[in-house]
Amino acid sequence: MTDVLELYHAGLTTCSKKSRHCLKEKGLPYKSHFVSLGKFEHHDPAYLKLNPNGLVPTLVHNGTAIVESGVINEYLDEVFPDKPLRPTDPVARARMRVFCKMADEYALPATRIPTWTRTKQAQLKEMSQADFDKAVAETPLVDHRLKLQALKRDGFSKKEFEEAYGRMDYVFDRCEAALAAGPWLAGDMYTLADIAILPYIFAFREVRPELMPSHPKTADWFARAMARPATKATYEPSEETRPAA
Amino acid sequence: MTDVLELYHAGLTTCSKKSRHCLKEKGLPYKSHFVSLGKFEHHDPAYLKLNPNGLVPTLVHNGTAIVESGVINEYLDEVFPDKPLRPTDPVARARMRVFCKMADEYALPATRIPTWTRTKQAQLKEMSQADFDKAVAETPLVDHRLKLQALKRDGFSKKEFEEAYGRMDYVFDRCEAALAAGPWLAGDMYTLADIAILPYIFAFREVRPELMPSHPKTADWFARAMARPATKATYEPSEETRPAA
Which residues of B touch A73 (CB under 8 A)? Predict the structure, then answer.
């Protein structure tokens, strides 16, 4: 049987980049389905059948949906063991997973505060109350519903920005400490940890440009990771990330 | 070489139960080190060398520290493959990991709002400002620092409770949906998913007793999971969870 891989994604958003990057790094061909968050296509009933959380990305492998970018990436590396992206040594693998967890639990919520303010707030403020209420009602996750409401009203609080900025410091500091051993976050091997953290360092350096020069090992790692062909193919705008209307 | 396993944990707290439970379910003997959160022993410099986040639990395996309960449990199942707690089928394993992620990312933050209010607020309010400021300064994670400050001041906000309660609904709903296939969260096999979600259903049912009767498959799963000998040994108070002073 020929494997058929399909990825539903939102192009250059952080979690979508994680799974697109993993697929490209492993050289796995896939059918790309762009999901427009601005048009709320992630709330379409057909999409919610694949991903009841209304989040991107979703992998569909021979008809079976796999959700959550971190879970998708470990799944891909298990099912397609060529060009491995996980260390075989269990200690290095645990170290890799700590960074993957940090990306999802610690970095992603920190990214949303400035990014949603920049990319979503104007649109939400311009929406009619009826359209906005419909979008909120169709949002499966309570934390996302509350974030949309905060953005429409006053924006995120000072405390939410303080926490987001503190989390950015934390992620940079942890990368810098790990890269003292290096050359990659989990040690000798380029792994899912590098793929998971990269979109956040990419985003944080725009919000907090001072963090890069104060973390020179992380800056060097970032330059090396960004120079890889699979990274370029993932991070540069393309037909896949900005499909024709 | 004989394996030496040591677990630093806080007894009956949610993440500590997760790793104690995994060790007991696999029948792995370990040396137990109780870390008193009330005495801020998780801020001791010696402990912070093992776990720079100042969180429990930490596994030490032949001298190497592994942090994060979810990472610890996958590590244990990889290094000690007897009595496996992960499915071999990659789709079932992905389903397991979605629940493990849900436990860490979605359930744990929801638990902290009512639990910290109940277990920590009185102590924090009674602390002198100098002792409190020292405890906050020694807390490695910014989100924990902000939570401690909120508790000392006014307690958590209405919005924080609303989000926590919404997350509890979500976790119950996702369990109920998965258990329609059952009998366990990832399918036929009792896995790390059941171990990861159990302490949260255990905690949520105390805060939201109405959720159990409205989720009968989850209630049945809970009764079956709680009846297992390893669960009883983990969840019942013992010398390990309440060491003599």
Answer: none
